[in-house]
Request: fold
Amino acid sequence: MADPILQFEDVSLSYDDKLVLDRINLTVNPGDTYILIGAAGSGKTVLLKLAMSLIKPSAGRIKLLGRDITDLKETDLFEIRSEVGVLFQEGGLFDSLTIAENVAYPLLNQKQLKAPEAEIEARVKESLEFVELGHTLDKFPSELSGGMRRRAGIARANVTNPKLSLYDSPTAGLDPITAYTIMSLILKQRDLRKTTTVLATHRYQDGAMAANYRWDEASHDVLRATPYGQYADLKTTFIVMNEGRIAFAGTQEQLEASRDPYVSQFVLHQPPPKLGQSGARGHLPA
Ligand SMILES: Nc1ncnc2c1ncn2[C@@H]1O[C@H](COP(=O)(O)OP(=O)(O)OP(=O)(O)O)[C@@H](O)[C@H]1O
Ligand SMILES: [Mg+2]
Reply:
């Protein structure tokens, strides 16, 4: 078995006297998808921030790409952080920068990636074209729709071609069609670039889509990968958070079989929509 991408060992986090994560143990294996679901305040965002060492745990160890990052100083984190892409919950685009400048930001701020300007330009363009925003390079975030801004955020998260992508609530506040587009692009990144994916969401549909659909380059859309519930080569682990603890970790089938009253609240007892099954859906909507 390949080495884990990310490991939490008995990780706890407190703010003042409040325990917000309680002895989290978690292993993220290469190529797999992890869906973090849980009520508001259950600890999804702090868990993702710990994974990038944007905050430090109060106890426990965190290993990223085989390296113990628990006590690493900010200056020693640049290099390893460049292997991780992140879409923050609030999007996090800088209003005063153009879309191209926003997407270039992770490249400019990572010393070891100091690429020549022409190469940076090419990578920014490629990254924006990947999310079908090639025409927005010189626009400002305020000139784009909410869904387009989210797509620009995905382009920025993945411009460094990271081994691990973290998406914090990428579909929150979006209409169902735009949410579908955003999830499709996340699966496109996962399946074409083989990026290990951790995604926090309130929407069970997002997890069901990640577990059962794959990007299909021929039809330029996601397609149902296998019959419902059977996905041998497509491993998605659902992790249900409850007040700073992992209340459940397992497959979609195991989650749907759970009788735990808290855990089962997060399950929609119906198969995911059959969108995409008919093949081409046309271009991605804004
Ligand atoms: N900087 C901070 N100072 C104090 N408490 C914090 C801080 N950041 C997070 N918390 C607390 O940690 C807990 C977990 O917060 P977190 O943002 O991870 O929840 P979440 O699961 O992402 O919620 P949501 O679904 O609303 O995004 C909450 O009780 C929150 O108030
Ligand atoms: Mg959050």
In short: DSSP finds nine helices and twelve strands in the chain. The chain has one domain: 30-53+82-264.
